[in-house]
Amino acid sequence: MSNEQLVQFLIELAEWRIKDEKLFRVLRFKDFNKAIEFMNQVAITAEAMDHHPEWSNVYNKVEIYLVTHSEGGITQLDIDLAREIDSHFSTFKL
Predict the structure, then answer these.
(1) What is the distance between the alpha carbons of residues 75 and 59, in angstroms, rounded to a whole number?
(2) If you average pLDDT over residues 58-86, what whole number do you get?
(3) How deeply is 44 buried, as exposed, middle or buried, from its count of CB atoms within 10 A (0-12, 13-18, 19+)?
(4) How far is residue 79's CA from residue 16's CA, in Å, rounded to a whole number?
(5) Which one of 39, 45, 53, 94 has the fewest beta carbons within 10 angstroms of its own beta carbon?
(6) Exposed, middle or buried, 29 (CB in 10 Å: 0-12/13-18/19+)?
(7) Where are the domains of the chain?
(8) What is the pLDDT of residue 7?
(9) What is this structure's pTM?
(10) What pLDDT does residue 12 have?
């Protein structure tokens, strides 16, 4: 993906940024249970896409990194998963 394409996607995916050459986002939830519920929903989507995030959870915070290792960088697959993650997140009451 070219830098120009990536810049356009980052405008659309306003909460995402580039960190360590990967797409990155931090999400905060009401509590631990909501964070885990969210991760479970995203896990189903990621498995269906055969594209899995690098992520971690500490209490109500989930940090997510997206990159396509086989391609050596950010690809359309990462953008698509970021959109899905944003869609899941929009359904949670904070």
Answers:
(1) 30
(2) 95
(3) exposed
(4) 10
(5) 94
(6) buried
(7) 3-89
(8) 84
(9) 0.91
(10) 87
Tell me the one-letter amino acid at 34.
K
The C-alpha atoms of residue 79 and residue 13 are separated, in whole angstroms, by: 8
DSSP letters for the chain: --HHHHHHHHHHSTT-EEETTEEEEEEE-SSHHHHHHHHHHHHHHHHHHT---EEEEETTEEEEEE-BGGGTB--HHHHHHHHHHHHHHTTS--
In sequence order, what are the beta bridge partners of 28? Answer: 61
Beta bridge partners of 2: none
The third-level CATH classification (topology) of the domain covering 3-89 is: Gyrase A; domain 2 (3.30.1360)
- Residue 11 is encoded by which pair of tokens? 């405008």
pLDDT tens profile 1-60: 778 888 888 888 889 999 999 999 999 999 999 999 999 999 999 999 999 999 999 999
